[in-house]
Design a protein that fits this description.
Length: 108
């Protein structure tokens, strides 16, 4: 993976408030995790910025609950989006995340 892809993700995070912890997580993430994330983003109706906002919301959840790997968060968000699409609703990825966390929690 080129550094351009990682930088594009980091640049999207920089535009959002309180992105420091997520920024560090993406900066140190394995290439395979970032490639998987980009594949998921390409297959979703959400923009990179939408995904970054949802990751930041997940980081807030972690502060009150437990830490998850970036890979786990990405896969969970993918399931949230898929569930939303299957239900015929197109709400924001962040709103889907909050609903799923409240209704289902996160399994190990």
């Amino acid at each position: 993976m080129s550094t351009d892809l990682r930088q594009k993700i980091l640049d999207s995070l920089k535009e959002l408030p309180e992105s420091g912890k997520a920024f560090a997580e993406v900066q140190s993430a394995d290439e395979s995790v970032l490639l998987r994330w980009v594949q998921i983003i390409d297959d979703s109706p959400d923009s990179l910025k939408d995904w970054c906002k949802a990751i930041l919301e997940f980081k807030k959840w972690e502060e009150q609950n437990r830490a998850l790997t970036l890979s786990h968060k990405i896969e969970y968000l993918s399931c949230c989006r898929e569930g939303g699409l299957n239900a015929g609703t197109l709400v924001s990825l962040t709103d889907l995340l909050l609903d799923y966390l409240k209704e289902h929690g996160v399994e190990e």
